[in-house]
Design goal:
Distance between the termini: 36 Å
Number of helices: 8
Largest sheet: none
């Protein structure tokens, strides 16, 4: 015990022996290899995550289109039911009807826009997309607009739509935009993935810096021995 303590004390008091120690160099190389392997495995896992998110985006896209189609269909059906109560010429043009339906379905249309932007974002490869990608920023802007439109339509709605609901006793409620929820899931997954890769890179950098310091210290030791 006394001899081992003396060796440790000598090693700590003499950094030159530590720098020249082949055991330290071997352990350092092993640690660097392990950290790089961990990073490779993490990147492989993240690749699988992105592949799953891409497949889920196809399902969410179908649901978003269904929400949009349902809202437009309901609006058109309500217009057809009470079109006679409006003044002549109110809905006599297709353009007027289309504008009214789009205005009433703006939340669902933005919902489709969100999933399209996310689909483009998830198809980015080599390197994969990040929070600064144009498609992700576009989806984030559309999310804000979609949520604002949803709560605005829930609380106020349009004047014509309110009249239609009064006439038809429409009690239907709008479904929350499904693409908005998926956007939050994608953002959370990419945040965790970025954080994991950042920690791996930080560990690699620490080991490499320590290795560089030891090599420089070893060179100093060798130069002093030559003198």
């Amino acid at each position: 015990m006394t001899a081992s303590r003396k060796r440790r004390n000598n090693a700590s008091n003499n950094p030159q022996s530590v720098a020249a120690s082949p055991v330290i160099q071997e352990k350092l190389s092993t640690a660097l290899i392990q950290v790089r392997v961990t990073k490779d495995r993490t990147e492989e896992l993240h690749m699988q995550w992105r592949a799953h998110l891409y497949r889920i985006s196809l399902i969410i896209g179908v649901l978003a289109l269904h929400q949009c189609q349902r809202t437009m269909r309901d609006c058109l059906n309500d217009i057809a039911l009470i079109s006679d109560t409006f003044k002549v010429g109110k809905f006599n043009e297709l353009r007027t009807i289309a504008m009214f339906v789009c205005n009433d379905s703006i939340c669902e249309i933005l919902n489709v826009g969100v999933i399209i932007a996310l689909f483009i974002f998830l198809t980015i490869r080599d390197p994969h997309g990040n929070f600064l990608s144009q498609s992700f920023r576009a989806s984030s802007i559309l999310v804000v607009l979609s949520v604002a439109a949803f709560y605005n339509m829930q609380s106020n709605g349009s004047d014509m739509r309110s009249e239609i609901r009064d006439e038809t006793n429409d009690q239907r409620k709008r479904q929350f935009p499904v693409a908005v929820i998926f956007h939050a899931i994608v953002a959370a997954c990419y945040w965790f993935m970025d954080m994991g890769i950042a920690k791996c890179n930080e560990s690699i950098q620490l080991v490499e810096n320590f290795e560089i310091d030891l090599k420089q210290q070893k060179k100093v030791v060798e130069s002093k021995k030559k003198k």
